[in-house]
Write a structure and sequence with these properties.
Length: 287
C-alpha cells in the first residue's frame, strides 16, 4: 500500500503532469470504485486541473470547483499514459483497470487495482472534507504542529494499546501504514506490542525514529516518477517484507507475525530482547 512518502511523491509527479491541463472525462470502469454520485463525474468535463495534493494517504486532484479524491488502498496504483487510451477489454470491473482520467489531448491517468479484493476508492466532491476518511484523519506527522509534545499526548491517550496499531491508526496519525510502522519501530528498537503510554525517554526515541524514517523515505522518493516509486519503497525497507533475511543492524533473522489480513516484520535482537513474538497463525498450525 502506498504510504505518506510515496503518496507525497506521487502527488508531486502528477501535479507536474496535470496542473493547467483540461479534463475531458473521468471514465469509471469498475463502478464500485466510485463512491459518490453528486456531483456526477461528467461535470468534470472542461475543468482545468489547478493542482494535486495529499491528505494522509489520499490523493486530491483539484479541477475547477471540484476535487477527484483517490485512495489507492492495498493494491491500487496510477499510471501516466501519453497516448489516447485503447478501449477496455473484457467485462467491466473484472480486470485491473478501475478508472481513466482522460485529458483533452487524449493523455491521462490509468487508475488500476491488482488482485480480486477491490478496495480502491474514488470520490468526486466539492470539498475534500466530504470524504469520510479525510474527515477522520489525525494530524500529519510531518507538519510543524506535530511536535514531540503533541505526539506524547496522542500516546498517553491510547493507554495500553499496542504501539504498532497506534502508529497505523489514521484517526490518530495520518499517512503511516503497515510498512513504515515496521520501519519506525525497528529504528526505535521497540517492540510492536509495547504499550503506547510509555516513559518520556521512549517517546523521544520513537518520535525521532518516526521523523527520520519518514523524512529519509520522502527524500529517496523526491523527484521520482510514479513508475519508479514502488521499487524505491521496497529497496529502502530494512525489515518490512524481509522475513528470513538478516537484520541490517545486528544480523539476526527477521521474523514476522501473521494476522488474518496482514503481517508485520521485526528483529528479535533489536526490538524484543531476543524473544520471538507469538505468531497466532503459526501456533495454530503447530498444534
Amino acid at each position: 500500500m502506498p504510504e505518506l512518502p510515496e503518496v507525497t511523491a506521487l502527488a508531486a509527479d502528477l501535479g507536474g503532469r496535470l496542473t493547467g491541463r483540461v479534463i475531458d472525462r473521468l471514465s469509471v470502469v469498475a463502478f464500485a470504485a466510485l463512491k459518490t454520485f453528486d456531483p456526477p463525474a461528467d461535470t468534470l468535463h472542461g475543468t482545468t486541473v489547478s493542482g494535486v495534493t495529499r491528505h494522509g494517504k489520499f490523493l486530491d486532484i483539484a479541477a475547477g470547483d471540484l476535487h477527484i479524491v483517490i485512495h489507492l488502498a492495498r493494491a491500487g496504483w496510477i499510471r501516466w499514459r501519453d497516448a489516447p487510451p485503447p478501449p477496455p477489454t473484457g467485462r467491466p470491473g473484472k480486470g485491473p483497470l478501475a478508472a481513466r482520467l482522460v485529458l483533452d489531448d487524449g493523455s491521462g491517468l490509468d487508475i488500476t487495482e491488482a488482485g480480486t479484493k477491490k478496495s480502491l476508492a474514488i470520490y468526486v466532491v466539492r470539498d475534500p472534507a466530504e470524504v469520510p476518511g479525510i474527515a477522520r484523519l489525525g494530524p500529519d506527522p510531518l507538519s510543524p504542529d506535530f511536535t514531540e509534545e503533541a505526539f506524547a499526548g496522542i500516546l498517553a491517550d491510547q493507554g495500553r494499546a499496542q504501539i504498532k496499531g497506534v502508529l497505523r491508526n489514521q484517526s490518530l496519525i495520518a499517512g503511516i501504514g503497515n510498512a513504515y510502522s515496521d520501519e519506525i519501530l525497528h529504528v526505535a528498537k521497540m517492540s510492536p506490542y509495547k504499550p503506547a503510554n510509555m516513559p518520556p525517554d521512549d517517546v523521544e526515541r520513537l518520535y525521532d525514529a518516526l521523523q527520520s524514517t519518514l523524512r529519509d523515505a520522502l527524500a529517496r522518493a523526491d523527484g521520482l516518477a510514479a513508475s519508479e516509486l514502488k521499487s524505491e519503497k521496497k529497496s529502502g525497507l530494512r525489515v518490512h517484507g524481509r522475513t528470513g533475511e538478516p537484520c541490517p543492524v545486528c544480523g539476526d533473522t527477521i521474523r514476522q507475525v501473521i494476522f488474518h489480513d496482514s503481517t508485520f516484520q521485526y528483529c528479535p535482537t533489536c526490538q524484543t530482547g531476543g524473544k520471538p513474538l507469538a505468531d497466532r497463525v503459526l501456533s495454530r498450525l503447530l498444534k
